[in-house]
Amino acid sequence: MYVHHRGVSTAIGALLFLLIAFSMLGLYLMMYNLNSEIALTYLKKIEEESKKPNINFTVDYKRRESITPNLGSTIAYTVFLGEVNDDGVDSLVAIDDKKVMLTSTTGQGSSSNGGIRNIIRNGNFDNRELTPWIVYPQNYWDARNQYARYNRLVYFWSGGAKDYNGFLAQSFNYNSSFRNPILSFWYRYTIVSSSFLRRYSVNVTCLVQILDSRNNIIWNNKIVSVVLNNNNPTSSNSWMNKIFNLQLVDFNDGTYNLKFLIVITRLSGSFVSVNVDFGFDNICLNVTIPRLTSNFYNNFADIVFDIVDNSFTYFYFVSNTTTFLEIYYYNSSSNVWLLDKKYIIGDEYVNISIAYNRTRFFFYSYTPFQIDFNYVRINHEVLASKINISLSNTGNGEEHIIAVWINYTRYPNEGTLDFYVLPGENRTLTVDLASLGLSLEYNKVYVIEIIGVRSKYIKNIET
Amino acid sequence: MNKRGQGEVLATVLLVLIVVVAFSGIWIWYMGRYSGEISHLYREKEKATISMNEKIIIEKVFFIQNNIDVFVTNMGVETDVSTLYINDNIVYSGNTRLLSGSSLWINVSYSWISKSVYNVKVCTYLGNCFEVNVRAP
Fold it and tell me: Could you tell me how many CB contacts below 8 A there are between chain A and chain B?
């Protein structure tokens, strides 16, 4: 009986002990559960992070607008070989009866034994113009007196330039069938130097050069080299004739450049003024055309079109007979014409697209021909007021684009974009520059930064 | 005989009473700790979740004469931006509230050297840091 009563309190004690033990176990299980939940969230996060997006993007910041091909304003032409007639400023505006008609010219003496042809254009400057010659620096050249004149006053001082260059150049096409190339021209010069300091010395040289299409000099000849000093301050020569036989020059089929280069160099002294006055006239590069054979093309037409900058142009024209066409484009950095494409055209209209603003059409054929340029479509490329950013995601994670920076300007001004690029997606994001008070300008660099939640993507564009 | 029995019953009742009282004391003390621990655990879990979902994006760093301007955007949960480090030096400390989706300019005076690379790090109150390396212009 005594034992039984003590057992009751032991049982109650044990019960309460078990209560506390179970509650501690519950706490432990709860901690374990919370830790598991956190670990699971972390694992999900890690899994999300391990899926990486791979974003590539391009920026389209130009748009094309069609402009009317008015002769003399948006498009101009110059004919170097052949005769041309047009039906006014709107000759090329539409496919209609108005045209620019180019008729071929025939090589000299071509009827029987071949003949001699001058492949330099406007070498006598009778029209008082320098076209198609390329001159540098432009301000110091003119053809007012029916010859090319280079008149320039230069000053040398101790800290200034050591030499000054000027040139007169023209590109020409050479055919490997040409024989006996002879270069001839007239030239004169007057050079006057002075210095208020006693001793000085300057050198003036004039070189005649032929350069190939890669701008390598393949022939070079010094026609003037004078040294002037305080004892001998002037030098002049009246008109003289020079003739060079270029038979040994390694000409191939292609475009070459004839260049008259004048170099004024200070040898010693300072504060020296030098006035050079050079004249060039009757420049000819005569080639002998072999006796006509069935494979020789003796009818030519050569026309250069100048179109507004940054344009893409479609020419629509036809020939009245089978005619060969070579299209050249002008490389202004090296001052040469480079061959772009060759075509054979017949008596059906052809449509040729050109991406250059200065294009030369050189036609040749067995028989005399006429080319009718009927229509020209000019797509002028301008900088857009809205840029389109094309994004593609080749990764396996999504990307959320929140902003775009264009140099120092953010799009949008405030807040973030709700623009997602899912894996495998291609999407275009349009940024209205006008809404940001921004407009693109030519010859500038813009840094486009696409801000994504996962990463940043950068590209530079040069307008 | 009867009196002796009463003493035993009384002793047993007293013993039960002592056990109950003692355990009640332990239980009251323990429950306080227990509920405190549970709340702490939930708080920690919430903090960890918030911390995990913080996401500050350093969009742009401008280098201006003797100044560096940092443009940041919060793409995570609402947070407090507390410090900005440049090359591990604290250049800004505060407690700026940044709502989710909103942005903030942090402008600091700093003598930077052209063409050098700088590590820009933004830290939140919860201790998360977000950094970028940028080259001065």
Answer: 84
Q: What is the pTM of this model?
A: 0.54
pLDDT above 80 (res A326): yes
State how far the Cα of A141 lies from the Cα of A135, in Å rounded to an integer.
7
Q: Tell me, yes or no, whether A167 and A230 share the same domain.
A: yes
Task: Say yes or no: A2 and A128 in one domain.
Answer: no
Q: Tell whether A77 is covered by a domain.
A: no
How distant is the Cα of B59 from the closest Cα of chain A, in angstroms? 6
**Contact by Cβ (8 Å): A300, A364:** yes
Domain region containing A155:
115-289
Q: In Å, how far is B69's CA from the nearest CA of chain A?
A: 12
Task: Express each pLDDT in B104-132 by its tens digit.
Answer: 999 999 999 999 999 999 999 988 999 99
Are A19 and A60 in the same domain? no
Domain count, chain A: 3
CA distance A75 to A79: 14
Residue B55: list chain A partners with CB under 8 A.
453
Give the tens place of pLDDT for each residue, B86-102: 999 999 998 899 999 99
| Domain at A268, CATH number | 2.60.120.260
Q: Least CB-CB distance to A402: which of B52, B57, B132?
A: B57
- Single-letter amino acid code for the residue at B107: N
How many of the other CB atoms lie within 10 Å of CB of A374? 20
* pLDDT at residue B34 tops 70: yes
Check A403 against B15: CB less than 8 A apart. no
Domain shared by A132 and A36, yes or no? no
Whether A9 has its CB under 8 Å from any CB of chain B: the answer is yes
A147 and A272 assigned to the same domain: yes
- Supply the ipTM of this predicted assembly: 0.79
pLDDT reported for residue A389: 94
- Which chain B residues are within 8 Å of A402, Cβ to Cβ? 57, 59, 73, 75
Separation between Cα atoms, residue A68 and residue A74, nearest integer Å: 7
Does any CB of chain B come closer than 8 Å to the CB of residue A410?
yes
List beta partners, residue A64.
A381
Average pLDDT over residues A185-201: 88
For residue A341, the distance in angstroms to the closest alpha carbon of chain B comes to 44
Interchain contact A46–B (C-beta under 8 A): no
> In terms of Cα–Cα distance, which of A396, A346, A406, A403 is closest to A372?
A346
Mutate to test the interface with A, among B39, B103, B132 (most CBs of A within 10 A): B103
Instruction: Encode pLDDT of A382-435 as tens digits.
Output: 888 899 999 999 999 999 999 999 998 999 988 999 999 999 999 999 999 988
| Phi/psi at A378 (5° precision) | -110, 120
Whether residues A240 and A388 share a domain: the answer is no
Flag whether pLDDT at A97 surpasses 70: yes
* Statement: residue A232 has pLDDT above 90: no
Measured CA angle at A430 (ends A383, A381), to 5 deg: 20
User: What pLDDT shows up at residue B114?
Assistant: 92
Report phi then psi at A300, rounded to 5: -130, 155
Q: Does A460 touch chain B (CB under 8 A)?
A: no
Evaluate whether residue A227 is within a structural domain: yes
A23 touching B (Cβ < 8 Å): yes
